[in-house]
Amino acid sequence: MKLSVIRRACGSLRNHPLSHGNRVSVSSRRCPLAGPTVLVRTASTAAGSVTKTKGSYFTKEDTVQINSLIRDAIDIPKKSLATLHQRNPQVQPLLAIVQGDEDDRSLEITKKMAGKIGVNVTQICLAKDFTEDEIIEELLKLNEDPKVHGIYLHLPSASLTDRVLNTLKPEKDIDGVSYSNIGRLFQDDNSRGFVPPAVSAVVSELEKHDVLSEGKTVLLVGSEGPLGLALQSQIERRGNVIFKCKSNSKSLQRQMMQADAVVLCGAGNDVPPSWIRPGVPFIKCESALDTDDFSSESSCLLYNTAVHRIQNVVHSSSRWQKEQQYRPWKLRGLKLQPLTPVPSDIEISRAQTPKSVNQLAEEIGLLPEELEAYGRNKAKVQLSLLERLHKQPDGNYVLVAGITPTPLGEGKSTVTIGLVQALSAHLQLNSFACLRQPSQGPTFGVKGGAAGGGYAQVIPMEEFNLHLTGDIHAITAANNLVAAAIDARMLHEATQSDKALFNRLVPSVNGVRKFSPIQIARLNRLGINKEDPTSLTSAEISSFVRLDLDPSKITWQRVVDTNDRFLRKITVGQATTEKGQIRETGFDIAVASEIMAILALADSLEDMKTRLARMVVGTSRAGTPVTAEDLGVSGALAVLMKDAIKPTLMQTLEGTPVFVHAGPFANIAHGNSSVLADKLALKLVGRDGFVVTEAGFGADIGMEKFFNIKCRASGLRPNVVVLVATVRALKMHGGGPNVSAGAPLPKEYIDENLSLVDGGCHSNLRKQIQIAHLFGVPVVVALNVFKTDTQAEIDLVCKLARECGASDAVPCRHWSQGGRGSVELAKAVKEAASRPSDFQFLYDIEMPIAEKIRTIAQKVYGADDIKLSPEAEAKIEYYTQQGFCQLPVCMAKTHLSLSHMPDKKGAPTGFVLPIRDVRASIGAGFIYPLVGTMSTMPGLPTRPCFYDIDLDPVTEEITGLF
């Protein structure tokens, strides 16, 4: 047992050290925050001794006598602790004692018992004139500290105010003094609370005298307080008859002579011994702070109380350990009442009242400390969940992809949400949807939001589609900090000498120069193994201070989360203050930032920080890559992104859980939600549950990148691919006229046309199924049914999909019916997931960059070959020289065709895929070729979505989002 004492001489400290481990030597040291001497003392578990600052409360003879009395009593908590350590050797129970004065007899005994049993103790000694607020400040810290399993308030009764007792967390109230715990005693609910140790000690004494049995009477004298009430409840539960009497009652002597046992509660209560019948047990129970009675009987009761107090700490620790284990779901679904005709998305969203996110989190087994609420409807989830559930087997992993879409989109998000609503709310299978956060670009541009649609939505859809929890804003801030650092560094290097740069980069503070950790890391990469700034040579100083970025080879651009075509190419540095440092650069949309890709692919905070550090922002004139760590900015980036790395928990219209995290575009990035969201969800759903994650655009883009990039980064392997198709998209690929956003659909898409459907199935649908089979994963086709689809068209698609190799194909009506409309899809997915899969990557990561590009072009897109521009060839050669060739490839290609030509529908063949440029996202961990005229900054159409979006200034209701 380890004991630490923190003395509060000048009020409450901000933090107090909690001691852990088995032993620590006795030493005296000065507290760095408050100044007074603090004595750190150890009660050795082996010897059972306690070192004290003041005189001993018990002699060697006392110790021999007491050890004899309590040997059997401590055996129970010792065995409980041994069992706890068998389950988890890392758990060490810790008792925190909050006290307002020097140690007294009760505290010495409590610490001695903790030492004998093996429980650690930390003492928080308040200042002599402590206030109620100081007690509460300490309690709030101890409540939230997961290392503390029990809190003992060793304070005068007057200090145990309503505020103090209501602040104390019932789960850590091992003395059972909080109102919540007292209430649980009367309800006979000890599953979360504790019996007060003093009560347990009295009950055990009564049991020794064979008093606790049906019909025997126990007289409680002065039992009006919480302790007396708790004692009454415990004795009555054993069948005894309870009589209560005040200490000044005229009938006290008569009642005592008639009782089978007498218990005196509280200070100041005393009676003559002659009032008690011979052989009748008489127990005096009072606070240790209110007594100077050191008789053997009192000592025995104090020791017994201390043993029960420590036993409660062990029980609390055991409960905590059980809470850390996987919790079965207790999901309460939300009822849907679909209307016909189907109202607008925002009307449907607003008509449903979501559960509070705290309730949802509890239903799916999250602990309160794992949740960071952002209002009532959404919350960040702590990554510590992965460590808590690391032994929990993963559930089934389902990817939703699609055929090549029309510009209107074919409803992959809607299918994803409808599927999880069907699995959880209708088949009672744990399921989680993992979606990307929508960019403001398409929300206000062409496509609108990405919360699903109809009766298959994430709610509240306004919060989902707008700022959410600010992750994209954090990415924008981090990305543009790097851009600002690049231009500032180039300016300072161009206008200062080596010595001036060094003096500013390593400033003298109080006459001492010191490298920051990030600067030491740069020195090490340069091969300079020195940490004393004064020891660098002139050549080493020059190498250290000059990144010497080549302005023509800077690859980092600024970002903004808006479709703004006029920012595709800009000129910076034109103000006179920039001293002629003018260069051309440009903006990407925020979700195309490499930092967004890193957020989506990182599997921990440490991994994200490492990836941010190795991002390459440009090349020096000597041909050396320059990283964010070279700029000295990677630590600041991690700070900006520390909250963004946590997935956001929301819910569907039917109350099933959704993780929203990351939002890289699939045509200019890898187009998948985060690895972390998927991993957290796979642990939460359990072995038989389902995690449904979505890949952007068609299977040739989002799905291919999911397998070759995301699965390599995560180590996860999918069980099933759900391929979303629509009759209108199949008609387009079967030879139908062009479809344009904002324009009415041609009659071919409204009237039945089986020949167009047949042509689309035999071209695009067949090809997309074949692409999935390249990776060895079974495919279920989900036909997203529109009201204009005829039954003959629906039946034809399902029949041909199975003929093309799908495990199954089912129509889905979740848009109009919610989860009920996707039950058949859920059953088909469950069936497909039960079959063995033979997952494999498309290419070997060791292949040369050009060969990886060629493999994707030929096997996935159907191209005859690729054609590299001179710039692309030069970039590939450079990346190979720098050792970046062993990275997967992320193709930046149009989503409107399997080829690079948006107007080529179906499954084009006989074309050569042009690669105009090749870039590298070293931090994210992939090479991305730019195919054809692919742009990383979309533009606004003639009539953007924002024409329909408005706000009522009175009700603050948003209209026009979809």
Overview of the molecule:
Helices cover 37% and strands 16% of the residues. By secondary structure, it is an alpha/beta fold. The strands form ten sheets. Strands 11, 12, 13, 14, 15, 16, 25, 26, 27, 28, 29 and 30 form a twelve-stranded mixed β-sheet that branches. It starts with a strand and ends with a strand.
Keywords:
962 residues, alpha/beta, 12-stranded mixed beta sheet, 31 helices
Strand content: 15-25%
Q: Give the averaged pLDDT, no decimals.
A: 87
- Name the quaternary structure: single chain
**Cα-atom radius of gyration:** 35 Å
What form results from the Cα inertia axes? globular
Largest sheet: 12 strands, mixed
Structural class: alpha/beta
The counted number of beta strands is: 35
**What percentage of residues falls in helices of 4 or more residues?**
25-40%
- Terminal residue distance: 61 Å
Number of helices: 31
- Runs in which pLDDT lies below 50 for 5 or more consecutive residues are 7-58, 288-295
Walk me through the topology.
Layout lengths: L2 E5 L19 E4 L6 E4 L19 H28 L6 E6 L5 H13 L2 E6 L6 H13 L5 E5 L7 H6 L11 H8 L10 H12 L8 E5 L4 H11 L4 E5 L6 H7 L2 E5 L16 E4 L10 H29 L20 H7 L5 H7 L7 E3 L5 E3 L2 H5 L7 E7 L9 H15 L4 E5 L4 H5 L7 E2 L2 E4 L1 H5 L5 H25 L2 H8 L2 E2 L2 E2 L3 H9 L12 H8 L12 E3 L9 E3 L10 E3 L1 E3 L4 H8 L3 H9 L2 E4 L5 E3 L6 H8 L6 E5 L4 E4 L14 H11 L4 E5 L4 H16 L5 E6 L1 H7 L20 H21 L4 E6 L6 H13 L4 E5 L1 H4 L5 H11 L15 H13 L3 E4 L1 H12 L30 E10 L4 E6 L18 E2 L6 E2 L3
Parallel strand pairs: 1-5, 4-5, 4-6, 7-8, 7-9, 9-10, 13-27, 13-28, 14-26, 14-27, 19-22, 28-29, 29-30, 31-32
Antiparallel strand pairs: 2-3, 11-12, 12-25, 15-16, 16-25, 17-18, 20-21, 23-24, 25-26, 32-33, 34-35
Helix pairs in contact: 1-9, 2-9, 5-7, 6-7, 6-9, 13-29, 16-22, 17-19, 21-22, 24-26, 25-26, 26-27
